[in-house]
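Much of our argument rests on the idea that a fold can be written as discrete symbols. In the encoding step, the backbone of a single protein was reduced to a row of integers, each denoting a local shape. We regard such an encoding as a compact summary of how the chain folds. The record that follows shows the chain in one-letter code together with its fold in token form:
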Amino acid sequence: MLQDILPHIYHNSFELRSAEEDDVVFIFRRNQVLLKVSDCQLILPHIKDFSQIAPEHCRSLFSIDNIWYSMLKEGEIAPPEGYDYYSTAQYREFRPMEALFPCAVAGSLNRWYLDNQYCGACGEKLQDSEEERALVCPSCGKILYPKICPAVIVAVCDGDRLLLTKYAGRSFKRYALIAGFNEIGESIEETVHREVFEEVGLKVKNLRFYKSQPWVFTDTLLMGFFCDLDGKDQITLQESELSVGTWVKRSELPEDMAKLSLTGEMIERFRKDFR
């Protein structure tokens, strides 16, 4: 999956440090990031690659192995020869994973910094905390942490069949599983039951937690569940959310070639007779 970059090790613990010339650097133009791509392979730039960028204008983010990753705090630069700005939808198709994953994490942090420049309580300009990964208001003391939204991915099983869906009104046209965000005052298990019933009108039982995934493309922490159909199998589609809802036999399930998402891995596990 996206975060599976072994033997490389991602270190996300906060460290108060100044960026250095050898750091990998992410330069954003709103929600696009400056990258070099060769034969669908991502090549990440370093601060020292750009004469117009000084380390003191960058913010340290995290490290992978012994390499630090930083981002330009403000502004953008014209793409040098061989570089271009890429959106999430574009660069998520590139590899290797150890380059794709930090792009996605940096993109999530970039959105958070862009969306939280001023205190929502008093309007004061927010500052970086020197103690943790947070933004602090120097006036009222309000603290903001990076945005992480809990959500579920649900594989509804009925014997040798798996429920597959397709989103309505989205550019993503591949098959998916039932998915949805946790609501205030709701347990994750309750989210599973509610989302399945809302989207396809089915009841489920025997919930089995599979694993989680930090889907940083959308600032989401996904929690995957397998469960069994409880009662009738007639699908009532929530057309505002889904364009397709269908039962698919195990032998007819598509193979997961991208190996990027929790959804793809769960479909693949069921395809290979996981119970």
About this structure: The two ends are 20 Å apart (CA to CA). The CA atoms of residues 21 and 48 lie 5 Å apart. The mean pLDDT is 95. The chain is about 15% helix and 35% strand.
